[in-house]
Structures are given as C-alpha cells and as structure tokens.
Design a protein that fits this description.
With 430 residues, this protein is of the alpha+beta class. Helices cover 26% and strands 24% of the residues.
Length: 430
C-alpha cells in the first residue's frame, strides 16, 4: 500500500490541459480577475504549506496565474503589491524580447556581426575572431569569450576562449552589451524602447532599467512581471494587441537555440531537455533543469530566485520575487522546489455533494476491451490512462466509453476528473 501511495499522488497531480481562452487584465486600471483555488481543487492546507515554504525561503511576492487569472497572490513582510524589486537575470528574457522586436522592425538582424553596432575593437580579439561574433551568439551565450571576468564589458576583459558558436558559458558581459546594440541600432535608450514597445502595450504600471556597475537591471512590481509572463504565454500578443508578431523568432527564443546547452533558448531557460549546463559550471548535466515542473515549462530566471515561469500545457504562470540563501545565478534548484509544491496543491479527492465513489463510476475493472465511465453530474469527465510505471499513455475527452483494444494485457490505472472530483481506479486488461 505504501508503494502505491506515491503513484496515486502522481496520478492525482498529473497535468491539466491548458485552456484555449486566456484572460487579459485591462491596461488602464488595476483590476485583475481571480479564480478561486477550489475551482482547481487546491486544498487550503496545501496552500498554507506553500506560503510557509515561500516565507521560509525569503520570498517577497508570489503570484500564480491560471489562464491569465490570479489564483494565488501573496506578499511577505513589508513588501506590498506596490513595491518594486529587481529582476536580476530574469531581465535577460525581457531583453531577448526587445531584440526580437528590433529585428521585426528592421533595426537589426540577429545574424549580423556585433561589430556592426559596437564598432571594430569592442573586444580584445583579433579582427577575424571578433567578426565571427553575432547578436545571435550574444542571445545564446555562445560568444566564446573567456569568462574570467563575469560582468566586465571593457575590451580588455573580453578575451578569446573559443570560436563563437563552439563554446557555451553563462556570461553576463556579452548579454549586457545587447543594451548597447539595441541603443546603437535604434538611436533610443533602453528604457524608452521598453516603455514604447512593451510597457505601454500591456499595461505595466511602472518599471525601469537601472545601471548598476557593468550591468543594467530591470525593476518592477510583481504584477508587472505577471503581465510579462502572460504576454509570453500568449506568444507575444497581448489580447488583440501584437507586441512581437515574428512567430519564427518567438519560437526560436523559447526552444533550444543550440546543441551545446539544449536547455537554453534566447536568454530563456528551458525545461524538459536531455541535459543542461548550469550557470558558472563548465560541464553538461544529464536530465531536465526542473524535473518536478511540467516538461514544457520555460523561465526567465534571476539570482536569488526571481522568476517568470510559464507552462503552456498547464496554463500556468508563476511569479516569484525575493532573496534566498541559494547563490546560484539563476537559482534553478529553488525554481524546481517551487514547482514541486505547486504540484502538491491539488487535493487527492474532493466531492461537495456526494461520496467520491458515487460521484464517478468506473466499470468493469477487469476487461478484455471496453471500460465505461459515468458521472452523476451528467457531464463528460476527462479520462487519463497510465501505465503501471506512471507513464501517461492516452487522454480522452468527450467520451464515456474507452477502448483498451490496442494495449497489451496487464495492469493500468485510470484517472478520471470531473470538476473538483478525482477518482483513480486500477484496471486489469485480460
């Protein structure tokens, strides 16, 4: 029985399909529609445990959106909805969006040499090596510089390690210089570009880039980060307002950009890949960056746990601002822990009107072929078939009878969900 319980939990927490309809809050006021946690079958005790964990991890703000609506929103300590906080390296992903818009508007081509905008001698490399470096290499962390000085953008700090495109390393300096590329290409400063191209179109209340040392960091409120996440969830379109229409660039941005580190797009971290290279780490690690998050999750991630994390399949956007004892430059391990606890929010079973076993009927549980599912509510439930090892084999919607004819004999599990009611049943195909 103990061995079965973890698997039962896995089934009950299996991913939900994202809604096709996204809600967008108005751009001219602070109203934002909410979705009651119980509509997602989230348990109050589990929500409280999540908030306790977030507070323990020095969180300042946390927002969870489902299809654009706020499900959870909490501020900790003296931090409020109107407080500003730094994105740190999560701002890289915002800058990647700006580069895409600049290309779409004809100011640049990401495959142009960076020297077209920064001039010859922006590095200490021989000219033939410097000319190999393009904006694309800056976006993908493959400039090939020796990263001995992580942030210094002076030419003497940009020394040769390998040819551009042959070496991946999480290096702030080439990224930081994308600001200079954008400003050189457009003739405008980065704050004006962000305001005109993004902020004004999606209703950001306030935000700004602030130079700190060799870097320029973005500051905003938590809900502004949530608006950014919702924009990216909808592939660069805010409701009916296009922000980035170049679908090819968008798809490249949030998918593997190169083979050296498949978990990296254009300044976005990607889950569900075969391997990844963490920041400040020289070698590749097998597996996904956040194994407890949905495989399609991708994230803008910054030091001390700043996240704009998106799962299109789940319809979820996760925002976290704060500090942390985790000193990783992108704090990927903390992001995984947050997603793990989100996965534990759903109750094992809930029925508001009648006992669970009466609300949904699954029969027969020993069959050669067909299994019938009936729901007392009269609505058609969602049905998922799992192997004994927990692999999702198939999903049905809009049917009350499923066929196992194409599956070999053996034991399976059916997970049936109708509204807030979930039932899991063992099925033996003879």
């Amino acid at each position: 029985m103990k061995a079965f319980l973890p698997f039962l939990l896995l089934l009950c927490f299996a991913s939900q399909a994202a809604s096709q309809q996204l809600y967008f809050p108005p751009t001219d006021d602070s109203n934002w529609e909410t979705l009651a946690p119980e509509e997602l079958n989230y348990c109050p005790d589990s929500i409280a445990a999540l908030y306790d964990y977030l507070e323990q991890e020095q969180t300042k703000s946390f927002i969870l959106l489902k299809d654009g609506k706020i499900v959870l929103e909490r501020y900790f300590g003296s931090y409020t909805q109107d407080s500003l906080w730094v994105w740190f390296s999560a701002g890289k992903s915002l800058r990647a969006l700006l580069v895409g818009i600049a290309q779409e508007q004809g100011y640049l081509d990401i495959h142009q040499p960076t020297s077209d905008f920064l001039g010859k001698g922006w590095t200490s490399l021989p000219e033939e090596k410097e000319d190999l470096i393009t904006i694309w290499h800056q976006l993908t962390m493959t400039t090939g510089f020796n990263p001995f000085d992580f942030s210094c953008t002076d030419p003497q700090c940009l020394t040769y390690q390998a040819d551009a495109g042959t070496f991946w390393y999480y290096h702030n300096a080439p990224y930081s210089l994308l600001k200079d590329v954008l400003e050189s290409a457009t003739g405008q400063n980065i704050n004006a570009l962000t305001r005109d191209w993004v902020r004004n179109k999606i209703g950001w209340d306030f935000g700004f880039w602030l130079p700190i040392g060799d870097n320029t960091f973005y500051f905003s409120k938590a809900r502004d980060m949530a608006r950014f996440g919702l924009l990216i969830q909808n592939k660069g379109i805010w409701d009916q307002t296009p922000v980035l229409q170049d679908s090819a660039y968008f798809n490249e941005m949030v998918n593997s950009s190169q083979d050296l580190n498949p978990a990296y797009g254009y300044l976005w971290w990607l889950n569900g890949q075969s391997s990844y290279i963490p920041p400040s780490f020289p070698n590749s690690i097998n597996g996904a960056i956040t194994p407890d998050a949905p495989a399609d999750m991708f994230a803008a991630a910054g030091a001390l746990g700043q996240y704009v994390s998106i799962s299109p399949s789940e319809g979820l956007v996760v925002i976290r601002q704060g500090t942390s004892d985790n000193q990783d430059l992108a704090s990927i391990s903390l992001l995984n822990d947050v997603w793990k606890r989100i996965g534990e929010l759903e109750c094992l079973s809930t029925s508001t009107a009648e006992p669970l076993t009466e609300a949904i009927t699954i029969a027969p549980t020993l069959t050669h072929d067909q299994v019938n599912i009936q729901s007392r509510s009269g609505q058609t439930p969602r049905v998922e078939l799992y192997s004994l090892s927990g692999e999702l084999l198939r999903e049905w919607r809009g049917v009350n009878t499923i066929s196992l004819a194409s599956y070999p004999s053996g034991m399976y599990f059916l997970r049936v969900k109708q509204g807030a009611t979930v039932k899991v049943s063992k099925i033996v195909k003879s």
